[in-house]
Amino acid sequence: MASKLLRAVVLGPPGSGKGTVCERIARSFGLQHLSSGQFLRESLGGGDDGFDSILAASLPPLPAPFRCGACTGFPRTLGQAKALDGICELDLVISLNIPFETLKDRLSARWVHPASGRVYNMDFNPPNIRGIDDLTGEPLVQREDDRPEAVAARLRKYKDAAKPVIELYKSRGILYSFSGTETNKIWPYVYTLLSSKIPPIVPDEEH
What we know:
Layout: E1 8-11, H1 18-29, E2 32-35, H2 36-43, H3 51-58, E3 69-72, H4 78-85, E4 92-97, H5 100-108, E5 110-113, E6 118-121, H6 148-171, E7 175-179, H7 183-195
Parallel strand pairs: 1-3, 1-4, 2-3, 4-7
Antiparallel strand pairs: 5-6
Helix pairs in contact: 1-7, 5-6
Keywords: Kinase, Nucleotide-binding, Transferase
Domain Adenylate kinase active site lid: 110-145
Family: Belongs to the adenylate kinase family.
């Protein structure tokens, strides 16, 4: 087993597919997937206060050889980036750039299972039974901020908050940006990048 550690963050606006990309990274490279969105929703109700303590608690110990985590959903702000600096040094940051219209369509069609955080898209990843979670049979809901009237404001807010974070990591030379409208077309480039940093534990596969 390889002994190299890797700490990566996947950044992107709501609906960009960063969770899917990070899950594939975890599966292909043996990294632990840490999602701040779930931590913040469960522990802080979506707030930022105490973010660093939550993240520290979620990170596993790092006995060698251990491949560290690929994280999604944070840092969302410059303050969070500084908090993350105090916990671990990132090896690379992946930024997903998705056109506004694509994001708007994805978010407006997105429904979730509140208890688990499972996400469905009514256009390309619908549940087996409309409005019902595949695993539990419980009802799905559409978050307030995924409703069409809220999407534009949400994306603008992300763009304003993320700009200084992206500039910070760009200045450190660890930012890698990928553009496109489909996760399946972006993924091979992400896989190639990661493969140059750490050996995959399984070969690339069709997703």
